[in-house]
Amino acid sequence: MEDEIVSVIPIHHSDVLSPNVHVHQFPLLARPLQIPPSAATSGKRIRARIKPVARKLEIQVPADTRPEIWNQDKSKQFGAARLEDDREKNQGGSSTKQRDGEEPRLTEVRLQSEQIPQQGVYMLGVIHDDRLHLIPVSETHQFRPTLTYLDLTSRKSGRSKGGAGTDSDSDDYPPDPDEPVPMVVAPKKEKKPAEGKEVQMSARKLVEDRNNNIQGGMSAIRREMLLAMRAVEEEPWQAIEFCDSGTDESNQVFQSILSDNEERLECKTGITTLLKSIRGL
């Protein structure tokens, strides 16, 4: 049984905002990206910043600091760790100003983006006034919480323990009478060191093999990755304005993507050429 055609609507193509239309994906499930009520009451708002060269975005969402769901002691501990982590990586810190003498606190959740390569051409579709408006999407970004301050906390806790053993090693419990007595193993006799022998070695340059694979290529790849990571960390953040979906600025941008142009577009690509251009067919 074929599906019934309900209606036929015209399609409008608009690239007035190209290449500034992005798809941003957040790990929020069914919840919208909005400020918690407790933070909104105190006058806080969502902030954003960007690294244009590295194509990285960061959104700072104020945390919900209600006493029933927020641990103030952990907030101080993680706030100090994040402040130190920002200084080590030259990240500029939080956009929220801190008073003189005030103890640092974790007052926000940071979401940083990773650009996802696009396969083909992505389009944003909006049905408005019985018309389908198609807008090209230039970039896709996935946002995840940044928890690098936890690594710093773990390193500090590891150093504080020093060379101490585990809890099972340090605790001194009396022996269990029901357990069998462990066998005493006699210490092994030390072996005499073998006589040294003269070994001749030679160094040679890394050369390409028949498959044009450079020996030691993993080291070169690792070096490039480290240089890329350093370049991202050294690039300064630039503050940008975050506009929620209900603001006037967002409504103006939404209205600008709706095209009223009645000029008809003609497809000059044949079906054979189109099918050949699709990978995997």
Automatic annotation (TrEMBL):
Compositional bias segments (type: Acidic residues): 168-179
Disordered, as annotated region: 68-113, 154-198
Regions of compositional bias (Basic and acidic residues) in chain numbering: 68-90, 97-108
Species per Swiss-Prot/TrEMBL record: Pisolithus microcarpus 441
InterPro entries cross-referenced by the UniProt entry: RNA_pol_III_Rpc5 (IPR006886)
Annotated GO CC locations: RNA polymerase III complex
Protein name, per record: DNA-directed RNA polymerase III subunit RPC5
Cross-referenced Pfam families: RPC5
Any one biological process term the GO annotation gives: tRNA transcription by RNA polymerase III
Superkingdom of origin: Eukaryota
Signal peptide interval: none
